Amino acid sequence: MKALNAIKLSGKEVLPLIEGGKGISITSGASSGAWACAGGVGTVSAVNADFFDKAGNIIPQIYHGRTRRDRHEELVSFSIKGAIAQIQKAHDLRHGLGSLNVNILWEMGGAQRILKGVLEKTKHLVDGITCGAGMPYKLAEISASYGVYYYPIISSSRAFKALWKRAYRKFASFLGAVVYEDPWLAGGHNGLSNVEDPDKPQDPYPRVALLRKEMREMGVDEVPIIMAGGVWYLRDWADWIDNQELGPIAFQFGTRPLLTKESRISDEWKQKLLTLKEGDVILHRFSPTGFYSSAVHNEFLLELQARSDRQIAYTPDMVGDHSRPLDINRKGNIIYVTQGDLIRANIWIHQGFTSIMRTPDQTLIFVTPEKQAQIRQHQIECMGCLSQCRFSNWADNEKTSTGRKADPRSFCIQKTLQDIAHDGDLEHNLMFAGHNCFNFAKDPFYSNGFIPTVKQLVDRILTGD
Predict the structure, then answer these.
(1) Which residue, among 251, 238, 282, 257, has the nearest Cα to 180 in the 3D structure?
(2) How would you class 441 by CB atoms within 10 Å of its CB: exposed for 0-12, middle for 13-18, buried for 19 or more?
(3) Full residue range of the structural domain in which residue 358 is found
(4) Under DSSP, is residue 250 helix (H, G, I), strand (E, B) or coil?
(5) H or E segment at 400?
(6) Angle CA(296)–CA(300)–CA(304) in degrees, nearest 5?
């Protein structure tokens, strides 16, 4: 294993090891502060982070607003308070060592307002802003205005080129690094484009080499690239280290920091990670963001898959093969389906999936009355956590609407991530994870259920393992 030399990030010499930011209270100040204290770059998530009362207890994020706009304003306030609290905690715990970034999702509702609100209070504590999930054109301008470095997360050189031409070239001096997040291996939301096949992963090396080539042409050849997604053992990436073609390289770890003593996920979740096998994490497209995402294949995803499978197309009038009438609410609301789909519909209804819901794509899904009631309730309680949401049709605009019907094939991502982050059920919530998390069960470092501290994990990573 090659020696891993320090690298300059945000103007500081640090280990080229970055803790990946994980939202909805997962990457907390305790974890990121410890990571920075170990000499690397800790990353506090500013996505609905927890904040505390005077006794140090977490304050539940309960919404009281009567309208979606009112609840959205509450969410923005919660997000700013939580991020500030966690950044302060991380800063206190790092003892002046390492570097501290804050992570924000560009496609979350109120992203720019939240980022500015956080930086107003923490610009003297934060070294960099990591930002992905979309095309954050304004990231460079906002970061530079507060004197903080920015770290865009991209999944192709094409995406970075677009960001550079439109905005980043004007603020090149504050570009801390470019995070290349592999769209096939990373946990959470993935940046697969419409021209990339989710079932045909590409080798990251040529993609990163092309990114470096284009960065050199832009005059930012010494700005580090951070490899994210699929990084577990550094020995597997030895040929990337001190590689002249790739230039300065650092490595981001998203999944491994979940299994540390400082990690705020539940003990049950930590034990579950120790049992996962190869293939237990799947790439799916049920997210209300519209992005692909990687998560543990549990009952939550199985129900979404089954919900989508119980789906047929319809027409409002009799057209071609759509000649069989179906009363979707048993009140004379007739639409037309094919003979084969009518047979399937009657089978599903006989099985208890008696509630029929329309989708924005002129199809119907069949669910139980209990599931329909839950879907409707979650849609009613929307707090606008995304800039645009397929599930609730919320949009962060004047009309607070995407202009499309809400899609019952998706789910409220805010509710499920808040629940699992606060000791909720692991089978019936979305559990994000990277595709290499099966290594927890195979890696002798975790034998007999051993859970390391962050410092022990960083020391282990430096050995190549």
Answers:
(1) 251
(2) middle
(3) 299-421
(4) strand
(5) none
(6) 110
Task: List, as one string, the DSSP characters of 341-387.
Answer: HHHHHHHHHHTT--EEEE-TTSEEEEE-HHHHHHHHHHHHT----BS
pLDDT in tens, 239-275: 999 999 999 999 999 999 999 999 999 999 999 999 9
| Residue 408, pLDDT score | 97
* Integer Cα distance of 256 and 231 in angstroms: 9
Residues 6+ apart with CB under 8 A from 306: none
Number of structural domains the chain divides into: 2
Whether 112 is covered by a domain: the verdict is yes
With beta carbons less than 8 A apart as the criterion, state whether 411 and 430 touch.
yes
84 CB neighbour count, 10 Å cutoff = 22
pLDDT at 197 over 80: yes
Q: Which amino acid is at 409?
A: R
CA nearest to 128, candidates 44, 206, 70: 44
pTM above 0.90, yes or no: yes
Angstrom distance (rounded) from CA 146 to CA 160: 22
Residue 51 lies in a domain: yes
